[in-house]
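Lecture notes, part 5. Sequence design as translation. It can be helpful to think of inverse folding as translation between two languages: the language of shapes and the language of residues. The source text, in structure tokens, appears below.
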């Protein structure tokens, strides 16, 4: 089997981030193709059939996940879904890290991801929390905000910049936060992610 440059880019992505789904692959590597989902599915299956990639499905309703060595958690896969969706929306990703550590005065917090991106010449930092097995507490978010970690990190760009917090849950509950920063709630389908840029 001949490996294309696109195949090598897919391998590089999987090496860096751990795995890829068909949907993610279609949005990241086949976005300019007609029938991008079909093309991604066909190529990933071929790579798997030729033993370049391993694959699994949690159950018959779940999407097939392709990986090299280690299966990713639901949290990690959802953060990669958000990454792929942002690229699909035409966003330029400047920085992306899963499991981002934020030092505060009393403890270190781990966020499921930090994405710094540009859309229409505007800078958008995004702190991602996937609430699959637990709910992100307001205390955690307030501790991070009050630590001034991000305000200090982005001080060269502007004063008092704090990332928009994207909280992804199986369902959206009504919540009145009254917090001094933006929070966007989304379901696991992440179908309202474009509201980040309104």
């Amino acid at each position: 089997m001949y490996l294309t440059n696109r195949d090598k880019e897919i391998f590089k992505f999987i090496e860096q981030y751990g795995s890829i789904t068909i949907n993610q692959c279609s949005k990241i590597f086949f976005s300019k193709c007609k029938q991008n989902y079909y093309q991604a599915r066909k190529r990933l299956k071929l790579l798997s059939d030729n033993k370049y990639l391993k694959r699994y499905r949690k159950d018959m309703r779940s999407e097939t996940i392709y990986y090299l060595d280690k299966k990713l958690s639901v949290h990690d896969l959802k953060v990669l879904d958000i990454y792929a969706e942002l690229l699909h929306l035409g966003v330029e990703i400047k920085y992306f890290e899963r499991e981002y550590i934020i030092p505060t005065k009393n403890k270190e917090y781990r966020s499921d991801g930090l994405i710094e991106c540009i859309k229409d010449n505007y800078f958008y930092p995004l702190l991602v929390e996937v609430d699959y097995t637990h709910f992100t507490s307001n205390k955690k978010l307030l501790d991070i905000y009050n630590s001034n970690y991000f305000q200090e990190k982005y001080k060269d760009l502007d004063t008092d910049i704090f990332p928009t917090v994207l909280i992804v849950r199986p369902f959206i509950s009504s919540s009145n936060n009254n917090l001094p920063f933006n929070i966007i709630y989304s379901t696991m389908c992440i179908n309202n992610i474009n509201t980040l840029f309104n």
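The translated text above is only one of many valid answers, since several sequences can fold into similar shapes. Residues 76-197 form a domain with the Trna Endonuclease; Chain: A, domain 1 fold (CATH 3.40.1350).
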